[in-house]
Every structure is written in C-alpha cells, then in structure tokens.
Amino acid sequence: MSDKQKTIVSLTFLKETCDAALTSVAAADGVVPDDLAHLQTTDFAVIHKDFTSLLAYLYSATTKTAISLKPSSPTYSASLSPLKDLSTNISNLSHNVRLVQKAHGATVLKELQSAARSVISAIQGLAETLLSDTAATKEPSDVYLSKVGEVHDAIDKLRSGTDGLSSNNVTAVRKLWAADQSSLSDALRELQEIPESGDDNDFDDGWDELGIDSSSNKLSPAELERLRKVESIVKLCNLMHKTVVKRVFSAPLQNAPVQQEINSIVDILANDSPTLPAAVDDLIATVYSPQEKEEMLDQLHHLDGVIDRIKSHIDSLFALEPVGDLLKEATGTGKKTPDVKRWFGTCFEEIKKLIVQMSTTLQDAQ
C-alpha cells in the first residue's frame, strides 16, 4: 500500500472516529459508562485539566496534518503520525466528557459537551476536505486552509481566559447569568428611551402615508406614569440579577469543594436566568402607546411568578449549611457590606411590593 493510500485510510478512519465521538459526547448524561467505570471517581479538576491538555494536542496535530497535506505539495508519509494522534485524542476527548458525573453539575457538563462538539465537528470538516483533496484527480483548492482555521479558532476560544472553559459548575452558571445580564441592561435602556422616541417629531416613520396618525404613539401623562413605575421595577430586577452574579456566584462558592446539593440548586438557577430578561421584555412591550391595561397586568403577574421562582431557589441555596459562611467571604475584609441573605430578602420584598402596587392601580383603573 502506498503512502497516499495509507493517508486516505487514515483520513477515513479519522472521519469515522469523529462520528463515533460525536455520538458518545451526545450520550453523556452524568453517569460514567461501564467501559470507563475504573475512572468514575475522577475529580472534575482532573477532567478539566485533561480536557485542556487534549485541546493542545489536537491543535498541534491539526497544524502538522495541514502542513504535511498541503495540496500543492503533500508529504503523505509525514501525515500518518499526526493523523493517528488526531484519531486517538478525539476518542480521548469524548471519553473525557463521559467522565463528568452528576455531582459535578449539569451546566458544566453541557458546556463540555458543546465544547467537544465544536472541536470534533471542526476536525471532522477538515478530514472530509483533506480526504476529498487527496482523492481528487483535478487541481485541489485551498479550502483546507479555512478548515484548519476553524479548528484553531474553536480551540483558541476554549483556551481564552475570559470566555474559556469553565473550571467548575458554579463558574459555568455564572457565565450564563453574566450573558443574560446584558439583555437586562439593553431592556432597561430601551425602556428609558421610549419617552424620547415619542417626542421625535422629525422622524418619518411612514405611518402618515398610510393614513395613520403617528402622533398617537406619544405617551399620555397616565401612560408615562405607568412607564415610570415599570422602570422602577425593571431597575430593581436588573440590580437583583447583577448582584446574583457578583455576590452569589462569587469566588468562594466557585472554589468550594464539589457538593451535589449546591450544584443541583445552581443548575436550577441556570435555567432561571433567561426567564427574567424574557419576562422583562414582555412587560416593556406593554408600555408602548396605546397601552393595554389588561395585557400589562398579565405581564406583571408573569414577572411576579418568575421573581418568586428565583427567590425560592436563592433561598434554597442560602439554606445549605456551608453556603452562608462561604458567601460572607465574598464581601472581603474591611468592608461594611450588608448581609447577602438579608440584602436579597429586602430586594425581593421591594420588587414584590412595586409589582403589587402597580397591579392594584391598574385593576382600580379598569
């Protein structure tokens, strides 16, 4: 068998290995499979370290493969070793994900699954392109260069300091909450700009040409008053969400030993986070003129339910014995900061009060 034929076999095997690895990664559910049972007590810190090491090996092997199989002057014999390394480490990467246990946390498992999929899929795309180029009878293209870039970009993203792979479940959940925080900030900004947009008489919105009076979009004094009340609610929701990121998912909780009780609750909070920006957006949509009081009431009721669920899960987290002491450390030394549990109790109470007051006013106006 010629070196070129061996390369084609190796590329085919790599492609098949990627298929099997993607299936294995998708099946990861926090239960270590029987064939890896001897590794089922592996600490997550070890899993994380091995994952990042495998990324480095895959990056290097991808570069070597690309150099050896440059379409204009391929060196097939030199490609065999890095292709073997790619297949071996792709399998190892999928096995690494399967070692994540339920106790380690569902959110960080999902993050590792997504990370592994992005890298494996990129390498699979490169293998398919190189296989096509190697077997082609016509002049090959330079498409393989973009495929190499996709692999490198996928790995670089996971190795970056800020947006890289989370080192534990709390960090993974914090990352999700921080991402949703920008949506809440945008929502508050939109709300604050509504009165200004209604006063912009120089803007041609096209409604006049259709025979519709665009001046009716300007808020009445009563509507403007409702907007200000909604703004107060949204500001507090924004502050609450931001403080969860800063003071709950803080370094002491991130660095705490793995505890399934803690991870189970923060996983629930991971699901809670996007529901708040969504509920706030729906409420803000009712503020535009003409306002429908009944729809505004419905959205206030929905937001109230979202806040109640988040409060319930935050309270459950605080009820765990080690959490209170850990979060006290988050305030730092020499600083006079309110007790975090008391702060959230007051914040949730104030949000609830504002929602009830506005709901009562709307009901009385009907």
Structural description of this entry:
There is one protein chain. This protein has 366 residues and is mostly helical. 73% of the residues lie in helices and 0% in strands. It has two domains: 3-159, A middle domain of Talin 1, CATH 1.20.1420.10; 169-365, Up-down Bundle (I/LWEQ domain), CATH 1.20.1410. It has helices at 3-26, 44-68, 76-98, 106-135, 143-159, 169-198, 221-248, 251-254, 260-272, 275-285, 293-319, 321-329, 340-365. The longest helix is centred in the first third of the chain and has 30 residues, at 106-135. The radius of gyration is 27 Å and the shape is elongated. The termini are far apart.
Counting DSSP H or I runs of 4 or more residues, the number of helices is: 13
Strand content bin? under 5%
| Full CATH superfamily name of the largest domain | I/LWEQ domain
Low-confidence segments, given as residue ranges, are: 201-205
